[in-house]
Amino acid sequence: MAHNSYKNNNFSGTSDYIATRELQTAVNAAIALQRPLLIKGEPGTGKTLLAFEVAKALGKQLFTWHIKSTTTAQQGLYEYDAVSRLRDSQLGDDRVNHIENYVKKGKIWEAFDTDEQSVLLIDEIDKADIEFPNDLLQELDRMEFYCYELKQTIKAKYRPIIIITSNNEKELPDAFLRRCFFHFIRFPDKETMQQIVDVHYPCLDETLLANALKTFFGIREIKNLKKRPSTSELIDWLKLLLVGKVSADDLNDLSRMNEVPPFLGALLKNESDYDLYKALREKGIK
Amino acid sequence: MLLDFFYYLKTNKLPVSIREHLTLLEALDREVIAYSVEDFYFLSRAIYVKHEQNLDLFDKLFGQFFNDSENIPVEKILADIDENWLKSQLLREMTDEEKEAVKAMGGLEELLNRFRQILEEQKEKHEGGNKWIGTAGTSPLGNSGYNPTGIRIGGKGGGKNAVKVWDKREFKNYDDDLELNTRNTKMALRRLRILTREGVEDELNLEETIHKTSENAGLLDIKMQASKQNRVKVLLLLDVGGSMDEYIEECSMLFSSAKYQFKHLEYYYFHNCIYESLWKDNGRRYEDKISTWEVLNKYNKDYKVIFVGDASMSPWELSEPRGSVEHYNEESGLTWLERFKEKFPNLVWLNPINDGYWQYTSTIKQIREWADERMFPLTINGIEKAMKCLKNRKLKF
């Protein structure tokens, strides 16, 4: 449904990814104005997937940079391997005369270096040190940085589409936020969820789906759950239901009896959540 | 008009800056969105709001601003319409069929007049009703709102998908997450850093390498060293219950930041003052008591001790044996505090009460004296000073 919008750089979801109107607006505005787009939202609502789908829909190359607690901003730009140069100099290797042999490009440099616009995903930026985003301000703003070893400024040939995801483990600095567009992926409502499931399982029995969604949203409404199941868990659960050949009536029958639905472990991954749900079922509350 | 909106957001405490406003103007200039109010809402939200805790506030303000009939009188809209622009825009968008229809109605001029008339009528009839359709129109983008193709000719109506997304206010719940506000506290706690080299040798020690290599007559001898890391050890003692209930938010903010910032963090709770026992779990404070002697002996004196409490109690709770309101204490609170001071040279007391009021409570004065004036208010500034004081004992408050 989206590949027709290929030319004018307009993202409207793909055949496997349902993007709401608000998400589309945010993505397209960020692309048009060449600003990074910061994506937050509940786990499992497709934050990381968005970058993959944007790249796919627009036919662009994707670079992913996954952030860990030890990642530094410099690693995204480049790393200079002084030790191996030192070693090569001892061995009389010819490579040693050219410093560029020892400058290893990071993901940001790679994305700057492509001959057409690319997509750069900076995944889970909140995992890194709290100073990390500040170290990238200039680079994301002007899309250029200075490489001391080569004594040259690296500038993006085509400003990449930058998508940044965060899980809220740490707060991000204001100066960084001001440079980004921000979108919070909300948990999909029933209609959107139906579309999402349709995309994944086009020929799912309708009543089975209706019953499954009823159970799913019922679980999400329970207060005090440690981890509420999200879209990705629902998709997994539906898969199990299909593989296990659970029929729509099975789910329905169960909701009359005081039993937990099959494969509930796919939805509730925490033991105490599981027990809580079971207890509620036994008391006859859905 | 957009500037009004910007100032409206700003005066109502939504953190927005000029930069964002310029971005919005740029986006509108480049026609990033289609001419619809809903898209404008999505776009301005993506630009102005940087944190989900502000989404609800934004929804509220957006609704208020564009609903407030006094804010944007119809006369103002009319004055704002640049006629020529509107005409050219219209002609560009209309199909031949529509152009015919316009002619049949007496030309574009006539249509515009008629349209204005409708706007006026709408004002009288729908006071406070569908006003947002009209009001949104004053911005250069929302023209679909009063675009005659919308009202007269039956194209896509600007007001058709009139579900006011912002009025649903679906982000209410994200308003009060605690972890969200701890960045400043974490930055303040950062002042307390003692960097030491320990563990895996993963860094090139340049100086040592050069030294060893020259000793080796130029043959390379690489020396590595462990990277620097913060290994400060912190003992946090928190007052809970009673008068401290008011300050729960500040305390949990400090606590969660400290947990994040210090790898070696030990914590215990007490009530009002330190006596012979402390506890780690507030739910089990009567079952799982830990003797204060044990705590005093367990930790070396290189631990930095941070007391958090309002230091407000009856004088005898502090200075008299058996003075505790809760239990029978053999020795006075002050005796126990003195033991801490003896054992740990580096300690501070953080007080959530505003320092302007400290002079009015006698026990605060006494504890300040005990702490050698190392009591600091529990504010970002105070925490910063306290952390400096833990490294340099001469600092006082």
UniProtKB/TrEMBL annotation, chain A:
This is MoxR family ATPase. One of its GO terms (molecular function) is ATP binding. InterPro entries: AAA+_ATPase, ATPase_dyneun-rel_AAA, CbbQ/NirQ/NorQ/GpvN, P-loop_NTPase. CDD domains: AAA (cd00009). SUPFAM superfamilies: P-loop containing nucleoside triphosphate hydrolases. Signal peptide: none annotated. Residues 33-191 form the AAA+ ATPase domain. It holds the Pfam family AAA_5.
Automatic annotation (TrEMBL), chain B:
It comes from the Bacteria. This is VWA domain-containing protein.
